[in-house]
Prior knowledge:
Blueprint: H1 3-26, H2 32-55, H3 61-76, H4 82-105, H5 108-146, H6 155-176, H7 186-209, E1 220-224, E2 228-229, E3 233-234, H8 236-256, E4 261-265, H9 276-286, E5 294-297, H10 303-317, E6 324-329, H11 333-342, E7 347-352, H12 359-373, H13 375-400
Parallel strand pairs: 1-4, 1-6, 4-5, 6-7
Antiparallel strand pairs: 2-3
Amino acid sequence: xxxxxxxxxxxxxxASLIGLLSGLRRKQSPKKMLRAxxxxxxxxxxxxxxxxxxxxxxxxxxxxxxxxLFYFFYRRDKPxxxxxxxxxxxxxxxxxxxxxxxxxxxSLIIIGLLGLLxxxxxxxxxxxxxxxxxxxxxxxxxxxxxxxxxxxxxLTLILALGLIFLLVLNNFGPSILPGWSLTLxxxxxxxxxxxFIVFWNFLSISFIxxxxxxxxxxxxVIVLGAGLSNGETVSPLLAKRIERAIAFYWKQSRxxxxxxxxxxSGGQGADEKxxxxxxxKTYAVxxxxxxxxxxxxxxxxTTLENMRFSKEIMDREKPExxxxxxxxxxxxxxxxxxxxxxxGLKADGIGAKTAKYYLPNAFLREFVAILVMKKxxxxxxxxxITLFSVLLAIANYLLTS
Length: 401
């Protein structure tokens, strides 16, 4: 154990981080946390490389291989759920690697890092479900208080009630049901664990996808529509999408003197007096965008149609080829990217910020929509879990009777 090595490394990291944050504060950078995380990751990579050289080992090849695999497929096709699986496979390999390097080099820094991860994991195992239920109930109260009382806005409450039912079932079921049938109690738990793993995968790739930084060479920015207030004015949620697109428009205009055109994409709902695209154009013009820079797509009623009909407009306008991106709320851009991929539109998304209290409900809604998109796979998996548990229960009954 080389204590002086680890103390020097830690002091060097801490001093460098303080210097970095001070510089970012003077520049009033809005991305201090992101820069600090990037610096920490880079410093940890250099430290691990130093340990590898000192230990004369090549264990780092393992996580680097899995990261390279993830990066290769992500760069080829970003809005794919498989990229989430590959990224989480990299995280698992990284944890295994850190464990190996901790025991082979006795690094206090790596052992301390693993200790923190272990404590966090233990807390999740002991209190995770109860803490999650409390959080979901509190969040559902905020959403219920500030948003409409529609079914999509009650998802956090529904999930909390489902978890409470599962806890009651697991705690009291064994004392009520016969012994051979206890295996059947594992069905809801196993299905919940399966969906949690799928949700974690979706959440991972959704957050990664939000790190998109499109090049400033776009010909079009598609703004995805959303419901109008009073049937004719842009809602606060839709305004955020338009403002995000406008910010990109002005940034590219300043840097290249060649701004992109807007495609306002949104049809007219049954409860709307005008098409969403028309209201969006009016709002953008009020924000200083020239009307001639705005095209309208006013036939779509779904995100898939947003992408398909907008692509048709761009194909007609620029048959020789074009560069395009789309703007929506941050929680929505990954699924929107999947739809763009379905219609053959090569476009990355840029996300508008969403109120933090609404994000849990919004991501749950997106997750449900993606489950529906891949419903056959999930039906098969749930059926296999159920079948396995039923067969096990039958076997227990036959053996004990």
